[in-house]
Amino acid sequence: MVILSMQLLKSKPNTTLLQILIWLAVLLLTFFSMLPMEGAGKSVIYTVINTFFYAVIIYVNILLLYPVFYQKGRRIWYVLFVILFLIIAGMLRGYAIISAYNFFLPGKTRLITLGALLNYITAGILVYILSLVFRIAIEYFKLKQQTEEIMAQKSQAELNLLKSQVQPHFLFNTLNNIYYEAYKEAPKTAYLIERLSEIMRYFVDETIKEDVAINTEILFLENYISLEKIRIRHGVNIHFTKVYDPDIRIPPMLLMTFIENIFKHGIDKSSNQNQIDIALTQQNGCLYFKTNNKIYEVDPQKKLNGFGIANLKKRLTMLYGTNFELDTATNDKTFIAFLKIPVA
Length: 344
What we know:
Helix 2 crosses helix 3 (75-104). This protein has ten helices and seven strands. It folds into two domains: 2-154, no CATH class; 211-342, Heat Shock Protein 90 (2-Layer Sandwich). By secondary structure, the chain is α+β, with helices and mostly antiparallel strands. The longest helix is centred in the middle third of the chain and has 65 residues, at 121-185.
């Protein structure tokens, strides 16, 4: 049984099992050290009393005094409470042991005096020191277990990533083959296939990163716009102004919500006067993104400020705290969206 327990500890650290084994060892050692002098009955009583107070000293320190006072910087209070606690615990232990002695040997009564009780405090100090070692051991095994779990999760995540890349890369290769075939007969169709391939590659390779190059993000938006334009019967006039440092990086998919909303709500497929203005400029350490399009729906403000904008605001809050500006407004049947974020 003990061998099996040690194998379990080796394969996967378990602090509860470790503590049980330690206390079993303490009980056995204490019992057999007293057995030759005290006999079985008294040895059991003394072992239980001593081990109980050892456990109280250790767990009160590592579960209460240490985290509540020491770890929160109240070091002086910690020292004072430890001293007071050790005195009280030592005297109670002495009282319990002397009372048990008098019970078993009524003819050799020992007086319960302050001096006699104070003699039991020394052992409490040694146990207190051991409690610090005990806590370090527990934290070590917890840290080791957490590290192993993190490594296992990392390995599983890498495996899942490899699996998820099989199908997209197959599709990329297939799209490339279709592109070359289409280029011979229909160059315009080949161009759109290429845009779609680049969008898919962006989703697979770039969206998993914390930030991407601004040019990569702009290329993604332009590819998306190119594919959306083929669904518009009479075409659309898009004016995209770009003035920025190409070296800056931004979180991926941060600007997409505005562009997506334009094609959902800002296009009249029966009209030949669709006009969209997009401006991306950098100034004074900030990046400004603004879109401007006509409103064609009865209640556009309700739709345009739906889940897309709300989710974008939550993401911006997580990324920048309060250091950003996000605003949407209507002005004479025109919808305006504005975003300002800091850039390095």
